[in-house]
Amino acid sequence: MSIKITLKRGLDINLKGEASKTLSEVIKTQRYAIIPDDYPGFTPKSDVKEGDTVLSGSPVMHDKTHEDMKLVSPVAGTVESVIRGERRKIERIVISADNSGKALTHKPGIPQSRENAVQLLLASGLWAMMRQRPYDIVPSPGKVPRDIFITAFDSAPLAPDYEFILAGKRTELEAGVKVLSLLTDGRVYIGTRPGSQFSGISGAETAEFNGPHPAGNAGIQAANIAPVNKGDTVWTLDAITLARIGTLALTGEVPMETTVAITGSEVKKRHYLRTFIGAEIAPMINGNITESGCHRRIISGNVLTGTKLDTDGFLRYPYRHITIIPEGDDIAEFMGWASPGINKMSVSRSFIGHFLRHKKFAPDARILGSRRAMIMSGEYDKVLPMDIMAEYLLKAIISRDIDKMESLGIYEIAPEDMALCEYVDTSKLEIQKIVRDGLDFLRKELE
Fold first, then answer.
1. Which of 184, 202, 233, 321 is the most exposed place for a label (fewest CB within 10 A)?
2. Structure pTM?
């Protein structure tokens, strides 16, 4: 019997540019990048140098604290460059593919113990695709989670459809649950929409969620099933990562293919395509951008939490979504904020667009307002379905008051959970950055 939960707080943002359920051939680009900043809590040390030959699935970096924790190459080829920034920090390692398809493999079969499961996931690079609460970091191998939460849908704007991406993958999903069950003494939960094909997966407890975004966030699901308190550790991941874990266990191969949704109002053909983790963006979008002539923003991910890219950028974790929208820096808008706002998407009743609930909008990337002091208006509470006083938590983070941060619930929060708060924020604060800085500060002080 599944758990049924209805979330009333949140906000669905209706944007133009949703991907149709069509899948293109595998796009094999020439260059791929592994970017350690995509993995919070991972302190990288390079295992390769320029000119080295690598296989798909072979290690290119390890964590300085946990040397068994690896990041691996998504393709076979040659290390083109190891890019470093300030203080020789590794910013990315770029692989030039040789299209040979040679791969490093592991012993197939479901591990028989927690130790074997941990070593398999660490060596394969899939460990780094999970997240730990508190701190929203790559999990520590030495900690046993109270529970593991898997989200089987993405509720973000223009998000890819997991039902489409993972069609026919039930065997892999069930194998992935068997592996994860070895890692916890508690329960494995899968959060789904009602009527999902992912309901009733063997070994996991299903929780059905009704409600707007951020219902698809694993952290939001955890907060409404079994909240994270001080001293608790839980892990979160998505169903796509779960399927990768299951494929690894069944075949011994590290699955590096990914299905990417190409979306946004500036895209001609909005569709899904197959490529490999960390692929360069340009070959996936060349010739598929509208001829409007405006400046554009390319985002790896969704418009709320994604990473802004240049045209020579690379697909960033979690490797499943590209959004292209107008930048807005070249727009001269008649009457500006004083216009009626029929085409303006807004949560404020000041604009007509607020009342057009079923209209799909094509907003640009402008902030539309200057930054100002925090206004205690309660607007965050309307879009955050957690038992947290977000405004007070943010003030505690900014003031670095550890006791208040703990009492106000920082251990169960992650930046993505606060993305809608940032969207509706009258003060134009960089809320996700504030939360990320607060989590990093707390971890540094307490561990």
1. 202
2. 0.94
